[in-house]
C-alpha cells in the first residue's frame, strides 16, 4: 500500500492509469454495450470466467477509472459509482439488509436518506431505529443480534454533528460480529477523513458535492472490501436500483478530482474565517462548525479530520430574520447542494430537510432558525461582507 499521506500526489498518480493512444485524460467511452468476438466469449463474460465489459449498467471503462481512483483515495479494496448519492445509499442498504433485519442510524441525516429509512425500508420489513450516536450508550442499548447495519454521516447534514467513527465501529463490531458500519463521508471527502482507516466497513458519498466540486453532475460512490462491493454491484446496482453513472459524468468527476486537495484546503480555510465572523456577530445565536473550539464535536473532529471542511450552519434569532438574510444575500447563492466552487446558502427546515416531522427535527437538533452555508472558493472577505450586509438590512 502506498503512502496515503501524500494524497495530493496520489489523486493524480496513485492508480498509475494508462489510456489508449497515450491520452493523458481518460477517454469517455460513451457506449451502452460492448461487442463480443464470439458467442463463447459473451457466455464466458456473463459467467465471470473472462474479464471484459458487457453492458454499461454492469461496468464501463471510464467509470472503472473513477472507481479505481475512489477505492485508492478511500483506502478500500473496491468501489462502485452510481447515478446519484441516493442511488449509492439505497443500492448499498437494499443489498446489506433483508426483511427482518435491524438498522440503527443516527438522528441527523440528509432529508432523503431519513425518508428512505423511515418510509421505504420499513415497507420491506426492515426495522429502523434512530439514536444520537454522540451518546455511545444509546448506540450500545440499540444494538441487537439482527442489527446488520449501523449508519451515520459525519459531519452530519445540516448541524455538523461529529460522530466518532472509531468508537462507533468498535462498539458495533464487538456487539454484533458481521454488522456493517456505513459512513456517509460526503462532507469531508477522503482528503479530510477516510472512514475505513478508522474502522468503518463501507463509505458512501454524494459525489455531486466535493468529489466533483463544480455543480454540474449528480453522482454517488460506495467504497468497501471487494466482497461487499461485489454484493452491492450484483444486487443493489445491477438488479434493484439500476442507478448507473453516465460515462460522461464519470469523466467530469475525474476532472474535478484533480483539484480535490486544493479545493478542500481552500474550502476549509474560507469556512473557518466565515465561522469566526459569524461567531462574533450580534445577529447570530449559535454557529456549528467543527473547527471552532466551542463545537461539541471539536475534539473528535481533530482526531479524525485533517481539516474541518467547508460547510457550516448557524442559528439566527427568528425564522423571519433567517428568510430575510437568505433573500438579501447578493454574492451567496440561494440554492441547495453543497461543495461547489460558489458559496451556497439554504434553509434546511423548509428545503433539504423538509421531509422531517416536528419530532424528527427536534431529535436531529435543529429548527427553522437554522441556515446552512456551503462556503465556496470566493475571497472570504467578500463572503463575510455579503452576510454582514444581508443580516443588517
Ligand atoms: N448524503 C448527503 C450527506 C447529502 O448531503 C446528500 C445530498 C446525499 C447523500 C444525496 O446525494 P445526491 O443523490 O443528491 O447526489 N444533499 C443535498 C443537500 O444537502 N442539498 O441538496 C442535496
Write the SSE topology.
Layout: H1 7-13, H2 39-47, H3 61-73, E1 78-82, H4 85-96, E2 102-106, H5 111-120, E3 127-131, H6 136-142, E4 147-153, H7 165-175, E5 180-184, E6 202-206, E7 220-224, H8 226-241, H9 247-257, H10 260-279, E8 284-288, H11 298-304, E9 311-316, H12 319-328, E10 333-334, E11 344-346, H13 358-364, E12 370-374, H14 380-392
Parallel strand pairs: 2-3, 2-4, 4-5, 5-6, 10-11
Antiparallel strand pairs: 1-7, 6-7, 8-9, 9-12, 11-12
Helix pairs in contact: 3-9, 4-8, 10-14, 12-14
Bound molecules: ligand LCS.
Brief descriptors of the model:
393 residues; alpha/beta; Aspartate Aminotransferase, domain 2; Aspartate Aminotransferase, domain 1; 2 domains; seven-stranded mixed beta sheet; five-stranded mixed beta sheet; binds ligand LCS
